[in-house]
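S.,

Sequence below, as promised.
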Amino acid sequence: MIHDRYERINALSRAFGVIRQSADGLNVAVHCPNCHRSPTSDRTQKLKLAIRLDTGIYHCWICGIRGRSIANLIRRIGVDN
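The prediction came back faster than expected:
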């Protein structure tokens, strides 16, 4: 289990590529792998999958995918590490 915020950010960066951290440092935004699979090309450019660093809860503001464990999303979608 990853406890350090810096380690979590590095792990998410390896899994999702580009990330953007919020001003308060509680959340990061990444490309949604669910939207990325859609044929609409404008969806792939947006960092709309919000992930809360302390709990791992995630939500995409475009496609609506959400859950309580980002590890489960990574396993289910098959994001390369």
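The longest helix spans residues 5-16.

Coffee later?
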